[in-house]
Amino acid sequence: MNLMAEGFPGHLAADHLADDQAGPQADDEYRFYPIVRQSPWLGGKQENTREYSPLNEGLPYWLNGLVPLAYGLDNSRLKTQVHNVTKRVLDQQQEDGWLGPESKEQIRDLWGRFPLLLGFSQLVDANKEFSHYIIPAMYKFIVLMHDMLVNNEGLDEIWGRVRYPDMLICLQWLYEHHPRGDKKILLETMQLLEEQGLSWRDWYESKYILQNLDDIDPPITGDHPIFPYVHAVNAGQGLKSGAAI
User: Fold this and answer.
1) Rounded-to-integer distance, Cα 69 and Cα 96, Å
2) Ordered alpha helix ranges (H), 74-181
3) Which residue, 42, 47, 155, 176, has most beta carbons within 10 Å?
4) Among residues 70, 62, 178, which one has the least CA distance to residue 128?
5) Which pLDDT band holds residue 154 (cuts at 50, 70, 90)?
6) pLDDT 10s digits, 170-219
7) What is the helix (H) or strand (E) element at residue 73, kind and residue range?
8) In whole angstroms, how large is the CA radius of gyration of the chain?
9) In this predicted structure, what is the pLDDT of residue 18?
10) What span, in angstroms and rounded, lies between the C-alpha atoms of 160 and 196?
């Protein structure tokens, strides 16, 4: 369900949030938080951003969360931030379609693009004026992503392989609302993501662990075979995977 299309954020803003409560904190991230303000997505140098990982996911996370907040609150200041950042990111889209600061010579991991495109899709639903900027850019990237997946590229890290339902949502949104005669590549890309991703169905049907994870000995660390499934953010992705696939 697209929350913007269902009117959920407006209801939330009216009943539970006040503009003077939610607006300033989000605004501060854009003005002061290095992961946003000095993001490589906006031209900042990687070493100056204090990024917590090389995945370049910080700005996409922020944008994906700020779009519904800005439009749900009808906050002009937050909307301006969303619009400015969206235009800057799109203006820097690379010739081959890649979205993000990674060059061809660097490892290009697809995961950070998933929350970015979720944010883009929400923005188009909230403000149709952005469709002529965003939709062509999304398709240009998807053609590249399709080719990368055909060549088994882009999902080297576990994050994209377990969180691919986010991208399935974006592709299904395009298929349903902005197909442009390109349904074939959308369907093929969905299939490639599912084939190369880890199986959440298999996890829940045959491998799911019922015991307290804190009691497992030895402890589950990053190299443990079930770590991709029990990592907190990944587990949330798994819960929605059945609806997205």
Assistant:
1) 32
2) 76-91, 113-126, 131-150, 158-162, 165-177
3) 155
4) 178
5) very high
6) 999 999 999 999 999 999 999 999 999 999 888 888 888 777 877 888 88
7) helix 58-73
8) 18
9) 52
10) 9
